[in-house]
Amino acid sequence: MKFTKSTGILLLFMAVPFFSFAQDWHVGAFLGITNYSGDLTQQRVDMKYTRPALGLLVRKDINRYLTIRGAFTWGIATGADSTNSSKDLLQRNLSFRSNVFEGSLIGEVNFFELEEKGFTPYVFVGIGGFGFDPTAKDQSGNRVRLRPLGTEGQGLPQYPTRQPYDLFAISIPFGAGVKAILNDQWTLGFEIGFRPTLTDYLDDVSTNYVDQNTLLAYRGQKAVDMAWRGDEVSGKVTPGAYPADGAIRGSDKHKDWYAFSGFTITYRLGGGSGWGKQKATRCPILRP
């Protein structure tokens, strides 16, 4: 096929919809912090256990006020009884740390037209799935995976209703933020996002203690050591101090939460300056 001026003009007009389509898409990154709320915190969020978070994201502008976002975010959830003020929690002396790997699909509702105001507050809500694997350091400083130990009798025949918990769970991201245009391509934002989850085992703590001898027989001394760590507070083993079978270890009344808060930076694919230019591109006015 011979390339002519007419062919070039035809190809240019054919490419216009794809160029406009690209302008609706943004790719970017997230840099922020992770916080945890669960059985090892007395307050909703304990800032002493703030840890880093990183992520990648893709945004699609549906219209001026609605944006859909897909993201993959990594963070660290952690907590410990040692910083609580409750005497009972200090005596329990549990702790945990877990990487959190979240994939999410989120809808953002913008309050203003971003291209006109240059900035806009927004709220968001969506659905997420995340992987986790709680660990804790033993007295030798070695990090130990807690799920295989069955610290609350999960998987033992004496406790048939307690099954090993999944290491993948659902979260419900929601929150609010603000974003501002830096130039035609770049947008900077800041948001605070909460994640109520459908698991109570992000921290490996949920219900009651199980019989010490049963746990020892089926899972070994390490499971007993990590299920209750009160002896480490006094530095000596106290006979009979281990909680009785059925004693309260945690509470399954509320599921665990985590939070991702921080900055987003996104780049608009295809260049241009957003909806203003897209409108002109999609509905051109031909003048003689």
UniProtKB/TrEMBL annotation:
<keyword id="KW-0732">Signal</keyword>
<protein>
    <submittedName>
        <fullName>Outer membrane beta-barrel protein</fullName>
    </submittedName>
</protein>
<dbReference type="Pfam" id="PF19573">
    <property type="entry name" value="DUF6089"/>
</dbReference>
<feature type="signal peptide">
    <location>
        <begin position="1"/>
        <end position="22"/>
    </location>
</feature>
<dbReference type="InterPro" id="IPR011250">
    <property type="entry name" value="OMP/PagP_B-barrel"/>
</dbReference>
<dbReference type="InterPro" id="IPR045743">
    <property type="entry name" value="DUF6089"/>
</dbReference>
<feature type="domain" description="DUF6089">
    <location>
        <begin position="11"/>
        <end position="134"/>
    </location>
</feature>
